[in-house]
Every structure is written in C-alpha cells, then in structure tokens.
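Dear colleague,

Following up on yesterday's call, I've attached the two folding results inline so they're easy to grep. Please treat them as preliminary; we haven't cross-checked anything against experimental data yet. The first protein's sequence and structure tokens come first.
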Amino acid sequence: MEKQLILNLLAVARAFATSRGIELSTVGRVAAGDWRFFDHISDGAKTFTARKYDLVMVWFSENWPAGEAWPEGVARPNRAPQ
C-alpha cells in the first residue's frame, strides 16, 4: 500500500510542478515543508505517516491550479483531515 501512496504523491506533485513551471523541490517545500520530500520518498530514503500523506494531498487539492486536470487514478481529497 505504501508504494501506491508514494506513486499517488509523486503523480500529483509532478503534475502540479509542471502546471506551475516550478521544480519538484519547490513543490516539496511548499506542500510538505521539506524541499527534499519527494526525492526522499521516490528513492526510499524516508517514509511518511498516513497523516502526512493526508496533509500533503489536501494541500494539493486546496491549491490545485484552476483549469488543470487532477491526475487520473488518484483520489482527490475534498476536505482537511481532522
């Protein structure tokens, strides 16, 4: 399951970075509070909690560029985690 969550995070992060014309490290800094976040999860150097996953995905959902399609196959959260 963790592998799928990593793929979800990376798909959303890459789509966001592309749509904004920014680096993945910038996305990591603003979305996850760590400019290396996406590098670390993609190479297996670090893991993350379910809460971190939820927080990052909600950040993306709330800050998603208007007119851009959300990545297909990735569930989009509709509210902040409690």
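Below is the second protein, in the same order (sequence, then structure):
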Amino acid sequence: MSKQLQGFIQTITEQQLNVFSIRILQKGHLLDHWDRDRDQRRVQHSISKSFTCMAVGLALEEGLLQMDSTLGDYFDYDHVPLSHHSLPSSRELKLSDLLRMSSGHDSPPLWADERASLIEKDWAKYYMSLPLDRIPGEQFTYSSGDTFMISAMLQAATGHTVKDYLTPRLFEPLGIHDVAWETSPLGVTLGCAGLWISNEELSRFGQFLLQEGLWKGTQLVPADWIRKATAQQIETTGSADWGEGYGYQFWMCSHGAYRADGAYGQLCIILPSREAVICINSEEENMQGIMNAVWDQILPLYSHQ
C-alpha cells in the first residue's frame, strides 16, 4: 500500500468519514486499492445519472432522440398546466434542458422522499403536471426528477428501459452482469438513482470514460458525446467542488477533473490530464471531506508515475 493511500486512510479515520472502498487507476492499471471489509454491490445513488447519460448518447447516435426533443413529443397528457407568468409549460422542456438540470423548477420534483410517498403511479404525468417557475435552460437547479424524465423519454423513444437499452451496449461489454436498477411503479428505470454495482465495477466505468468510450478496441459510446457530457455546460453556485460547473449529468471538479457522484459518497473521479481514475464508495454525508482527502492525499501519487 502506497504512503498516499495510507495518508488517505489515516485522514478519513481521523475525520470519521465512513468510506468503504477506494480504487486508484492510472493508464488503465490498478495502482492501489483498499476495502474496509470487502467490495460489494451497493446502491450508487446519483452516479446512476451518469450511466443514463450514456444511454442518451447512444440514442442520439442511433437517431432515436434529438437534443431539441421535447417532453411533448413523447407524452400527451391532458391538463398539463401553463406555468406562472406565461412561462412555457413542461411540454416544451427540451432534452438539453433536462441534461443540464435547467428545467426551470424552484423546487425540483421527484426527490427520493417524494417518490416514496407519491400516490400518482405515473411519475412522468405527475412531473408534467407541475408548473415551471422560470425560463428553462438558463439556471441550474439539481433535480433528480429531470433525470427520471430523461429515462422516461428514452424509454418512449426506444421502446426499452434505460437498463435494458444499456445492457448489451455498455454493461455487458464492461463485464457488468445481472445489473439491478430500481424502477418507478410503471416500470421506468429510475435513471436518477437506484443502480447497484460494486466499486470495482464502477472503476471499469471510470476507465471507459477516461478512454472516451473506447473499451477493448470497440467504441461503445461516441467519444464526442463523452467529451460534451463531461465538459461544463452550465454554471453552478455551490461551494468548493460543487461550484465548478455541471455538464450533462456530470459534475466538474477542481484540478481539471470531472466526476460522477452519488449521495453519501459514491465518487467516480476522472483526471484526464493524469490519465487517472479514482473511485470511492461510502455511506457519508460529508462528501467534500472525502474529496478534500483525495486532493490532499491521493493526488500527489500521480505526479510520481
């Protein structure tokens, strides 16, 4: 075990950060790893969003979706209200708005607690029943509901759930078999959450992203899509690593990195300039504390490779 990884473990121990597993790769090789107990499949929370983004890139390539596709193109619900102050209705929300989380809701729909208590089984219908609060496409507001609607839109466009659509195109080529991914009451892949994989499996996804969609000589997802998805598409107003901007279902990071992340400390950090991937699985609210430990303790490892 490297002294950098030892330093990381010491830091998370001293700060009582509940980290389960870490994988550190560079140039496709495993440099170091640590498991507190054993690496096992755990729910990845919002890292699921970044997988959904890969499905979108494939559907765009196949001509099944367009970036200016709207919810109204796929969902024809009665009584969708107009928004406040003559704003557009949710029918006019574009795929590009949803990918950047700029749908125009002040209070994002379909958070986990709301999903658990919602009587309406058709979550897409519920989402579209809510008025917008501002012009779409202009302001970032983190919204799992936006990603769920991406999943619902893709299912309407392709005839397959996001999970089933990705299985032969991404999961199986990456060697991620028998995937479990939670669904809505009507069988729509959550998209925004609910994917169960191990940290080692997540590290394969990270390496695939670093290689811009190329895996064992096959281009699984268009490189141009991954470059766009992992570049800043909209500004964010958070602090530290949450203020670096947002792409298409990916966060920008300091140190020229980007990441997929999930609530309670699932992290898939890509550092293109160092050809490096860092994947972490945790059950910890202080995600910035984990990332600070990465920057302080793990990042110096790469300068010596």
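For the second protein, one point worth flagging: The mean pLDDT is 94.

Best wishes,
A.L.
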